[in-house]
Amino acid sequence: MQDRPIAAGVRALVLVAVIGGVVAAGAVAVAVKTSAIGRDRSAIDSGMTLSMPPFTSEPNQLQPVVLRSVPPTASATPTDEYTDSSTPTVSSQPLPSDQSGVFPINLQSGERNVTILLDLSGTYPQGEGAVLQVQQLVTGTWVDFAPPGQTGQFVVGGGLFSGSITPTGKGLEQFRVRNVSNGDVSNSVSVNVG
Predict the structure, then answer these.
(1) What is the rounded average pLDDT of the residues 26-48?
(2) Do 174 and 136 touch, CB atoms closer than 8 A?
(3) Domain ranges in the chain?
(4) Which of 21, 41, 82, 132 is deepest in the core (most CB within 10 A)?
(5) Is residue 118 helix, strand or coil?
(6) Is the CB of residue 134 less than 8 Å from the CB of residue 153?
(7) Alpha carbons 30 and 27: distance in angstroms, whole number
(8) Higher pLDDT residue, 77 or 34?
């Protein structure tokens, strides 16, 4: 046996594997015997099956939430032009401090604290097919949010919209959406990024 140390090592490994298998099988047998596994066959014998609910093509309808907010000021002039996302559009409309009144677009964030993705969703009952541009409040001015690799835009379908963005700032950030064709804006949402 001294002449073949590799063969002796292989034999020892095989012996340990066989003993380990026998011990594991014994442990499983004891566990099955002491548990209820295999005892109650009434569900199997009665013909019970697991079933799934029927598929429907209609999505769950969200109930709109109306948030009170301030209507847009006369000083803000919406544009009807498409702007390239590489040159952000700046809006001089200030953030309403109490958001009292009603905005035509209702925006909600899925989270208040985010690190990577911010889920935004909302309702825009009069905006079927509208393209909504996400805007971020930067030093008191609303700027189109379109970092590299993101459009920052959502399309309204069935009065609803949703999507995710990757915030680029740190700390407390505010976002809203703006209809690119008619200038309608949403309430703002505040999230802690970091």
Answers:
(1) 71
(2) yes
(3) 5-43, 90-193
(4) 132
(5) strand
(6) yes
(7) 5
(8) 34
- Fold classification of 90-193 (topology level): Immunoglobulin-like (2.60.40)
96 vs 84: CA distance, rounded Å: 27
Q: Given a cut of 50, is residue 90 above it in pLDDT?
A: no
Per-residue pLDDT, averaged over 83-100, amounts to: 46
Q: How far apart are CA 147 and CA 134, in angstroms?
A: 11
Neighbours of 60 (CB within 10 A): 6
Contact call for residues 131 and 97 (beta carbons, < 8 A) = no
Host H or E run for residue 192? strand 189-193
In total, the chain counts a number of residues equal to 194
Shortest CA distance to 90 belongs to which of 178, 182, 154? Answer: 178
Tokens of 99: 């958001």
Average pLDDT over residues 105-131: 89
